[in-house]
Structures are given as C-alpha cells and as structure tokens.
Here is the input.
Amino acid sequence: MPNDVTPQSTSILSRRTLLKTAATATATMAATRLGFPSIVQGAAPITLPALPWADSALEPHISARTIGFHYGKHHKGYVDKLNELVAGTPLADTPLDGIVKATAGDAAKAAVFNNSAQIWNHTFYWNSLRPKGGGRPAGDFAATLEASFGSYDAFKKELGDAALGQFGSGWAWLVSSGGKLRVVKTPNAETPLTQNGVTPLLTLDVWEHAYYLDYQNRRKDYIAAVIDNLLNWDFAARNLAQAAKS
Ligand code: FE2
Here is the structure.
C-alpha cells in the first residue's frame, strides 16, 4: 500500500479515503490491462480477490461448504504459496498475469507458474459463475454462440464433453480465437491466458476439489448443474466485447 501518499497528520477517515482511492485507481488500471472487469489483481503481494457473491449463493448446485474449502483453502493456498515463492525476486513486483506469462513453459519456474496460474484461473472461475445463470444465453451472445457451434445444444455438448473428458485435474474453457468461439480444455494449472490470440470467456474447474464434497465422483452431474444453472453469460459477453476492442 502506498504509504507515501498519506501524511501522518491526515485523519483516519481521510487516510482511509486516500488509501481506498489509491487502491481503486490501481484496481482500475489492473482491470483495464487484463480486460476482465471483475478481475482485479495488481503486483505483489498478491491478494486473494473477494468472491463476487456470498458463499451460499450458488446453492443448491454448489454448496457453501464446497466454496468454503475451494476458495478459503485452495485458492487462498495458491496466493500464500505464490507470495512465498516470489518474495525477494524480480517477480515480486510483477502483476499476476505477467507472472503467469513470464513463467509459462519454464520448467525451472514450474511452482511459480502453477500457483500464479491457479490464482488467475480460480478468480476467472468465480466470475464465470453466478446465481440463476446458465442455460441458453440471450441476445447477441446467443447468435455468436450459434454461429460458432451451430446451436446452443451443440455448444453445451462440446463444453460438457471437454469438461468430462479432461483426464485428471484441469479446466474446460469457452474462448474466442480467430473470430470464432471455441471450447478447449487444459490440464492442471494450464491456462489459455498464455496463448497468443486466444481470449478466455468462461471456465469450468474440473479439479476434484471443485465438486467432490457435493457430487463425490459424479463429475458429470456437477458439469451439468453448472452449465444449466450457473454460467455467467454477462461475464462472457463482457470478455468478448473487450477482446473485440483490443
Ligand atoms: Fe479449483
């Protein structure tokens, strides 16, 4: 936090206002750079972004207990570990997306990549979900989806197959690439963020920790519940609009 903008004599209220203003400015810059309005992450120390909804908001499809472990233990764990790994290195002053891109494919920096990418992926995942979401999107986005996949049902099958077919841990994504929407899957912490010309629009976490408490081994049921009830089409549309501008 930039203490140099805060004189000692400033009242606590003013100090809070100044700090909040500085944080907001930093956040806005970061959001603009990332192109994802809901994802705000500046340079280290990397912080755990707040969830965009209450931890029980996705029930009955994803329980507060799952969110409690997934966000409070797993996502937080990646944040704590990354800060430990980059402390005292040049990456300590690099924004999160920069760390992910700088370490992708570098075996010597696999731990930093894995933890930073998992932070980014999870923040993107929380924003990909919303209460009373999912199902067929409305408006222009529906037309874009149908132009790429033929129909909503074809898209739904492709995303579901990718999420179910990802062997072991990983992610299924809706991305924009070459003027079309596509479904891709990535193993472990891998992310389309590192691929040139590819813009992530939505993601689905298929690590077991995302569903095991609620669905045990029934990954297929978790996937169907998310696609039918939780996908945040507004987030996807904002990401697509942002991609079109850049
Ligand atoms: Fe996860």
User: Anything to note?
Assistant: Confidence is low (pLDDT under 50) at residues 1-40. Residues 70, 74, 122, 205, 207, 209-210 surround fe (ii) ion (CB under 6 Å). The chain has two domains: 7-30+38-127, 139-245. Residues 133 and 212 are 22 Å apart (CA to CA).
